[in-house]
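Lecture 7 notes: from sequence to structure.
We start with the chain below.
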Amino acid sequence: MTNASTTTTKATRGARGEYAKTRKRREAILDAALEVFAEGGYRAGSLREVAQRVGISEAGLLHHFPNKVALLEAVLDRRDDRSRAMVPFDADNGAAMMRGLVRLAAYNASVPGVVELFCTLSAEATSVDHPAHAYFVRRYIYTRTNVEAGFANLESHGLMRPGVTPYRAAVALIAIMDGLQVQWLLDRTVVDMAEELRALISSFVDIDWDVEDRVDPPGGTSAADAGESTGSTETAPPAAEETEDAE
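Predicted structure tokens for the same chain:
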């Protein structure tokens, strides 16, 4: 019984160790892919270049991401996860949502590569045959719907300026955010994205900007990522990721 228990414990620790190693490798691949796609766009960026930056073979990269589209989707998902950690898309607290959007704009100024990637891909993805086209359509629907709900919450509390509707405020806010990013990329000395966004929102609604909302740090490590037990099946390493790739 003791030997069996010891063997099981070692196997579990070994599996977790391999999972942690594989997770770090995937993160390194996503970081490299973000750089490559931001520098030359998705179409020009190659899997070979991404693999070279990580120090693995192209076959090793394909062990983690079966194709270029899967890699792109993972990069975009990672960006969105970090954004959602900073912006509480809670329709019952529109003020916190607006403060979160300004906080996100300030954070984006510290990660120009991510901003470049988003701007480049969103422009490329207007073509219906681009692999990220459906993603950006869904993303704008999701963002517009949630921001509109946030403004509607503020309107219900009598905080919306006269003549402004939640829908039009949401459309304008998203357009300004995207436009500010382009202007900032062209000349980072003349545009403060966070301050300009705060001024725009203030022209729509009257909220308290001094409230400190509790949010997760961008790129923070969750209990599941750290290999701690969270009571869910996600703590166990996925079968497809248990074995490290041969390089």
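Points to note: The CA atoms of residues 107 and 218 lie 8 Å apart. The two ends are 38 Å apart (CA to CA).
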